[in-house]
Amino acid sequence: EFMSVTGTRGLIRISINPGCELQAAMVHDRIDERSFYRDVTGEEFPGEYGERISARRRGSMFESNLHKEGAALLRSAVGPLYGLEPQSMLVRDLAAEVPGTGRDALADRLTRTREILRDLVDGTNVPHVLIQPQLQLRLGDGANDFVFIAPDFALLDPKAGMYVPGEEKSFIVRDGVGEPADLDLARRQAGAQIL
């Protein structure tokens, strides 16, 4: 099964196999894996591409549930970790403000995220939770040498005066422990977001 090499997913794949220069070049040049496979083999890729439909559906339902009623469940889950009272937390959903997944939508969300970060630096009141904030990670010196990075949310740590990226994962946890492979990917994703 092929997975996308764009954004954080591509960075995760490079981190798993750092010696593969071809994969790093594909991420840097935003090469579509399906096109690459077709160009090399002359055939369409015969298997699934991307996330399985059932996993995507479960993840969407999980996130939708977390974001209902002003992200009440999300606020309840993460607010106390940083000494925040869930009922008084302010939430701003950038995905609702700027729907879509195209580069224009991502660039608009990046501009809005940067405005919020400037407000934070200036001491202006900012939301406690940002849903789908947009970040940017430079990969080189060229104008297009960057990838968009989108944490599922970012939570304001009032003591540190900064936002902490977070991921909403719907994978199965047994006895308080997730599958090591799932946890490894989530940790790599968080690492890219922190960068």
Q: Based on DSSP secondary structure assignment, what is the total number of beta strands?
A: 8
Write down the secondary-structure element order: HHHHEHHEEEEEEEH
Q: Note the main sheet.
A: 4 strands, mixed
Portion in helices: 40-55%
Low-confidence stretches: none
Describe the structure.
Helices cover about 45% and strands about 15% of the residues. The protein is globular. The strands form three sheets. It has a four-stranded mixed sheet, sandwiched between helices. A two-stranded antiparallel sheet has the order 3-4. By secondary structure, it is of the alpha+beta class. A hairpin with a 2-residue loop joins strand 7 (about 175) and strand 8.
Short description:
By secondary structure, this protein is of the alpha+beta class. The protein has 7 helices and 8 strands, in the order H-H-H-H-E-H-H-E-E-E-E-E-E-E-H.
Descriptive terms for the model:
7 helices; four-stranded mixed sheet; alpha+beta; two-stranded antiparallel sheet; single chain; 195 residues; 47% helix
List the helices and strands and how they pair.
Layout: H1 7-16, H2 21-28, H3 33-41, H4 53-78, E1 91-93, H5 94-97, H6 103-122, E2 129-131, E3 135-138, E4 146-149, E5 153-157, E6 162-166, E7 173-174, E8 177-178, H7 180-194
Parallel strand pairs: 1-2
Antiparallel strand pairs: 2-5, 3-4, 5-6, 7-8
Helix pairs in contact: 1-7
